[in-house]
Amino acid sequence: MNLKPETFQRIDEVITHYPVKRSATLPLLHLIQEDAGHISDEAITWIATKLELQPINVLEVVTFYPMFRRAPIGRRHIKVCRTLSCALSGGFKTCETFEKEFSTHRGEISPDGEVTVEFVECLASCGTAPVVLIDETLHTKVDATKAKQLSDQIKAEAAARK
Amino acid sequence: MSAPAQQRIIFQHIDEPGYTNDIECYLRNGGYEVLKKSVGRKPEELIDEVKKSGLRGRGGAGFPCGVKWGLVDRKSGKPIYLIVNADESEPGTFKDRYIMHQDPHQLIEGTIISCFANNVKQAYIYIRGEMPEGARILEKAIAEARAKNFVGPNILGTGYSCEIYVHRGAGAYICGEETGLIESLEGKRANPRIKPPYFPAVLGLYQCPTIVNNVETLCQVKYICDVGGEAYAKIGTPGNTGTRIFCVSGHVQRPGYYEFPAGTITMGQLLNDVCGGPLPGRTFKAVIPGGSSAKVLKFGERYKGKRKVGADMVDYDWGVEDVPMDFDSLAMIGSMGGSGGVIVMDDTVNMVEALANINAFYSHESCGQCTPCREGSLWMKKISSRMVNGDARPQDGALLKSVADQIPGRTICAFGEACSWPTQSFTIKFKDEFDAYSEVKKTLPADRTVLV
Ligand SMILES: Cc1cc2nc3c(=O)[nH]c(=O)nc-3n(C[C@H](O)[C@H](O)[C@H](O)COP(=O)(O)O)c2cc1C
Ligand code: SF4
Ligand code: FES
């Protein structure tokens, strides 16, 4: 497995948190996805060996939990809440704004590879609806105007990288 | 009658200017004093305080915390585990997030006290995968607490040792259900277990006795161990003691979180006086009082019956706005207090569309083990989304309800109930909207809020 040395270190550490190794399945999947971007077949067999499981034990977990992905996504991950309180406050318009700004559709990588826009279920911040999680940062009260601003910011950051 | 004053116990420091989530700030505000006091007492005394307090769990079911602790098998010789349920995934609920982000040490102190009371040596905080920042904040807070010897080996020189670890979920709502959570923590799919025999108190994590408590519940425990169970029981109303945090979202002027002594505030006071009433020019149409699985209440309907006040039985005749916001009153009128998530809908909302949104959630989140839940939740979603997409038939409301009626009581976990209650209540209370949706749809304003 091709991972950063600190990822290997954290993997070894996290396994010690549990009396039964199998419990470390989710933490290992998170650590590897954070490092590699998604969960490959190789990662699944590697985790299985590490935790003394069969690959199917890991694969069934990967397919059950929506946050684990089998394929790469855009450089930035925009998750828009779809659930009732956010929808009541205009969450669908928010999502459409992101899709339009990046000429993409929900679940797909934008043509420039910059973002993947997705609908997700309630992000537990319903009082500040509509809410959007961009990578690891929660943005609140994201109406269409604010969605446009956030898009501009992401585009500016992409341009600065080039 | 205007609303009673808020009484912020758990949310005392939330949003307080200058209050930060690091341990120094917590200590300056009297942090970990209750822990110091508690580890000098007998564990049984602490359990007794919690029993006397009447505290009911804040995760949704409202089960008495002291009773739950009393059920733990202490003779098995196996280790006892405590799991903090920080999954917070019931739509409409968002209180635990603020505790973890802004006051994580309050949770850690409550957790360690609860561990000490129950002779727990290892605890896990199971936090939603979608809260990476919350997980980092908790990890930092635990490290700070360990450095000060509030967590870890030989806590404060008492000989008692306890570790806390943070465990992240990965986006599945069913991890909030306690036995699904345990499966998930064991590294498997979050398929809930059949009770009996798998009551966590006897056969929980690794088949060992296990306590699962909500984040807010454990913060309340810390407060109880501070003031004593009897003093705590005086807050709120008999049977509904302590404070309740309401998370209000949707169509009100001031959505947000508010903490009141339980049962002292009515729905009308909460929505009108505290949350500023409906949006300009609008009127309230419906409210879901305890997270999206609670049965919806319709403004204008009346609830009648008898209830116990002190030793007497008295008649009640309430409209939605008169209902006291506590577990028992909301249960009496056919809904529930649940996790305290109040979702408000005004007259712009079409109820078929609102239900279609909710059904999309539950069909996505079923773990798939039980046929009635797996197939039923998907079927309800398909009917309601077909309706909003233009193919509504007059009999669809009745069909939806009949599907919903087949689910509860026939499943492994309470998700079966959770996914059927919205459909049952929406289709009964807004029957005319469902029956006439094919006609209604033609006249719906094109610029209305899209919900599906
Ligand atoms: C489908 C389902 C989802 C649940 N989600 C949560 C949740 O997100 N957070 C929570 O604390 N309890 C949740 N619960 C309740 C837990 O199963 C459990 O009753 C609770 O964590 C116990 O803690 P308490 O006694 O402190 O309330 C859920 C229950 C069900 C049936
Ligand atoms: S009721 Fe639904 S969520 Fe619960 S165990 Fe059965 S299929 Fe899974
Ligand atoms: S409904 Fe969007 S955060 Fe809860």
TrEMBL record, chain A:
Question: Known PROSITE patterns for this protein?
Answer: COMPLEX1_24K
Lineage summary: Bacteria, Pseudomonadati, Verrucomicrobiota, Opitutia, Opitutales
**Does Metal-binding appear among the keywords?**
yes
Query: Gene3D superfamilies per the record?
Result: Glutaredoxin, NADH-quinone oxidoreductase subunit E
Amino-acid positions noted as binding [2Fe-2S] cluster in the UniProt annotation, renumbered to this chain: 81, 86, 122, 126
* Species of origin: Rariglobus hedericola
Write the protein's name. Answer: NAD(P)H-dependent oxidoreductase subunit E
Q: Which SUPFAM superfamilies match?
A: Thioredoxin-like
Q: Which GO terms describe its molecular function?
A: 2 iron, 2 sulfur cluster binding; metal ion binding; NADH dehydrogenase activity
From TrEMBL, chain B:
Molecular function in Gene Ontology: 4 iron, 4 sulfur cluster binding; FMN binding; metal ion binding; NADH dehydrogenase (ubiquinone) activity
Q: Which InterPro entries match?
A: NADH-UbQ_OxRdtase_51kDa_CS, Nuo51_FMN-bd, Nuo51_FMN-bd_sf, Nuop51_4Fe4S-bd, Nuop51_4Fe4S-bd_sf, Soluble_ligand-bd
* Assigned keywords, A-Z: 4Fe-4S, Iron, Iron-sulfur, Metal-binding
The residues covered by the NADH-ubiquinone oxidoreductase 51kDa subunit iron-sulphur binding domain are 352-397
Homology family: Belongs to the complex I 51 kDa subunit family.
**Protein name as catalogued:** NADH-quinone oxidoreductase subunit NuoF
Chain's gene name: nuoF
